[in-house]
Amino acid sequence: MATISKVIKADLEKIFGEKVVFNHPLSKITTLGIGGGAQYFISAQHKEDIIRAIHFAKKHFIPHYLIGGASNIVANDKGIFGIVIQNSLQTLQINAEKQICYVGAGHPLLSLVHALNRHGLSGMEKMAGIPGTIGGAIYGCAGAYGQEIKNCLERVKIFDGEKTRWITKSQCRFGYRTSIFKQRKNRIILEAEFQFTSADPKSLKKISRDIIKIRAKKYPPDLKCPGSFFKNIVIDAIRPVALKKQFLSKIDLQKINHGKLASGYLLEQIGAKGQKRGDIAVAEYHGNLIYNTGNGKSKDVKKLANLLKKKVQKKFGIILEEEIQYL
After folding, report:
1. What is the three-class DSSP state of 134?
2. Continuous H helices in 75-220
3. Cβ neighbours of residue 79 under 8 Å, at least 6 residues apart?
4. Domain coordinates in residue numbering, the chain
5. Which of 116, 132, 168, 201 could form a disulfide with 136, with the two C-beta atoms 3.0–4.6 Å apart?
6. 3-state secondary structure of 324
């Protein structure tokens, strides 16, 4: 448990009141159920809270970390020294007539999908069931079943450490499960603007319901997991060309879908299913699903992940990249 400075504690309580918690166990908020205490934890429900917390951290030379819904995080067992700021900006404005939406970065993605469906706005209905927040989805360019968060995105309001401003979709530099925000951590997502198309609300609701049912079979609601652990393989991104040719000669080409190969396929080829380290295990039915069977530890997650990566590299010559983030 991290030592709490009396001076810092008093100053934080003066600024944030009940919004700040000391040595807050991250295992209570991560979907993996893993993580020690955050020395200083702030739930920021207004952009001013985020800005003040960041300025405070810089002024006192304290490390700070921004998180969203904590659905894609493996938090350190030893806890986090510094300020952990949970982005809980949940504002939502929908103009169905203009087919436009403004939403806070801390708004749950599923909640937004349901709201859009009710208003007959199409573009995110297939993303139903993806855990986390809008900010997290933008940060990792989340997507499913042919839809990605970037598709309907117009612009993003950020705090860059000095001021708040809007940036365009092109400035976000989206790629497969990545964005500028992963490269430049000082750019904090505050709000997003989306533009949609009209569709029948009943049809949209049915699409989302069906997808939620499919996802529930793979990710049961009570399963302590972060969703897919490793990113899928973008075939055209494999370099050099010689490695790509060698890789393609070792796989079933029919498994390639829309230019990508599911990392779960590679993991199954190296016998990942059912492997364990401590209370961390790979699902018996899916090679890319790593979950906490009870009292799992972050060190065991890393050990198991590194073992699987080494085996895949040895057999196929490529290195898997985590979709999750280590905190």
Report:
1. helix
2. 109-118, 134-139, 180-183, 201-218
3. 1, 2, 23, 26, 35, 36, 37, 38, 39
4. 7-87, 92-216, 221-326
5. 132
6. coil
DSSP-assigned states of every residue in 262-302: -HHHHHHHTT-TT-EETTEEE-TT-TTBEEESSS--HHHHH
Model-level pTM greater than 0.85?
yes
301 contacts 74 by C-beta, under 8 angstroms: yes
3-state DSSP assignment of residue 4:
coil
Question: pLDDT means per 10 residues in the chain (327 residues)?
Answer: 78 91 95 95 95 94 93 93 95 96 97 97 94 94 92 96 95 94 93 97 96 89 90 92 92 90 95 96 95 96 97 96 93
Our answer to whether residue 177 is catalytic in this structure is yes
DSSP 26-37: GGGTSTT----E
Choosing from 122, 228, 263, 298, the catalytic residue is 228
Taking CA atoms, 310 is separated from 67, 270, 307, 315, in Å, by 29, 10, 5, 9
- CA distance from start to end of the chain: 16
Cα–Cα nearest to 143, from 158, 127, 161, 155? 127
Q: Tell me, which fold does domain 221-326 have in CATH?
A: 3.90.78
Under CATH, what is the fold of the domain 92-216?
3.30.465
| Beta-carbon contacts of residue 165 (< 8 Å; ≥ 6 apart) | 157, 158
At the topology level, CATH places domain 7-87 in 3.30.43
Q: Please say if 71 is a catalytic residue.
A: no
155 catalytically annotated: no
DSSP string, 49-111: HHHHHHHHHHHTT--EEEESSSSSEE--TT-EEEEEEEE----EEEETTTTEEEEETTSBHHH
Q: Which of 177, 187, 215, 277 is catalytic?
A: 177
Rounded to an integer, what distance in angstroms lies between the CA atom of residue 42 and that of residue 89? 12
Of the listed 125, 191, 322, 323, which one is catalytic?
Answer: 323
